[in-house]
Amino acid sequence: xxxxxxxxxxxxxxxxxxxxxxxxxxxxxxxxxxxxxxxxxxxxxxxxxxxxxxxxxxxxxxxxxxxxxxxxxxxxxxxxxxxxxxxxxxxxxxxxxxxxxxxxxxxxxxxxxxxxxxxxxxxxxxxxxxxxxxxxxxxxxxxxxxxxxxxxxxxxxxxxxxxxxxxxxxxxxxxxxxxxxxxxxxxxxxxxxxxxxxxxxxxxxxxxxxxxxxxxxxxxxxxxxxxxxxxxxxxxxxxxxxxxxxxxxxxxxxxxxxxxxxxxxxxxxxxxxxxxxxxxxxxxxxxxxxxxxxxxxxxxxxxxxxxxxxxxxxxxxxxxxxxxxxxxxxxxxxxxxxxxxxxxxxxxxxxxxxxxxxxxxxxxxxxxxxxxxxxxxxxxxxxxxxxxxxxxxxxxxxxxxxxxxxx
Length: 407
Hints:
Strand order of the largest sheet: 1-5-6-7-8-9-10-11-12-15-16-18-19-21-22-23
Protein name: Outer membrane protein
Organism: Parabacteroides hominis
CATH architecture: Beta Barrel
Number of domains: 1
InterPro entries: DcaP
Keywords: Signal
Signal peptide: 1-19
Number of helices: 2
Largest sheet: 16 strands, antiparallel, barrel
CATH class: Mainly Beta
Helix content: under 10%
Structural class: mainly beta
Distance between the termini: 21 Å
């Protein structure tokens, strides 16, 4: 850790020494963040429990006692962040810029480690922009919840940063977006677990097209369409023989969003018809719809999920936050030919969560507390429809304390 601190200090001193270069400007930013949390049961919560999603199903022991019913909690600061924005020089009529942003949320076997959050270059003209590099997925977009939890509304709000080529065009109050994206840190599921190989072997990136309308009185509204095309396997082991296969799973998702920002009050909402968006921290995935009896080649069918959330905030110095999210499994397009499924939360019929938080905000400071009950209904998958039946519910109560210092 001492070596890392010395490295970051050296980088900062280097930038300061060169920041006076003609036509360049540098702006450092970041925060120190501490999260203290408590849960009443075990949860699906990556990043060592800090990125909270939903409660895990009951797991009975030999006496029928639920192994997942025990409480847990901890305190972490590894989501503290450091970034630098660079502008200039101009290239023709285009303004050039770049961003590098890191935190300590990458994990080794025993400790946290530095990871890239965002790293991109951009060219801006009067009405258009081209961005190349890693930044927020367009499904995360310009409308996201204002809450304290690190998951920022997941698994109801998409959460993902990916390498991409993005083009945006502004025509008056309308902004159009088109993106081609590749996976790196947030990965789709498949036969070999979570891996980038499915989209790498596909040779087809994710695509997104969308539009936003921003009014002068604080309203923002828009929507978009997302395409993903995966190759789950390139070979099949069938009847003790290996065959080369040509498999592909392609599907579309749709989203709509709205936001209002007033002087002391803000409202935001988003709704998705989501399909195979488990790599964006949403519940989803796909199953097997048919198997070729000659060589074991498989066809796939996506699970469809309806996902929506609303968020209200009031106040500035003292701020109240309210969030509610709901996800429903709508089943698969085709019947399932196998019990094998790839994705996250596919044995869940529905999830409902609320979030009540209060924060105290000063220049460079935020201190807050949050209460978040979440209920998930687990059950059995009906292979004819892909829906979850014979459900039972489990509930987790999460309490979070947050301290942040911005710079």
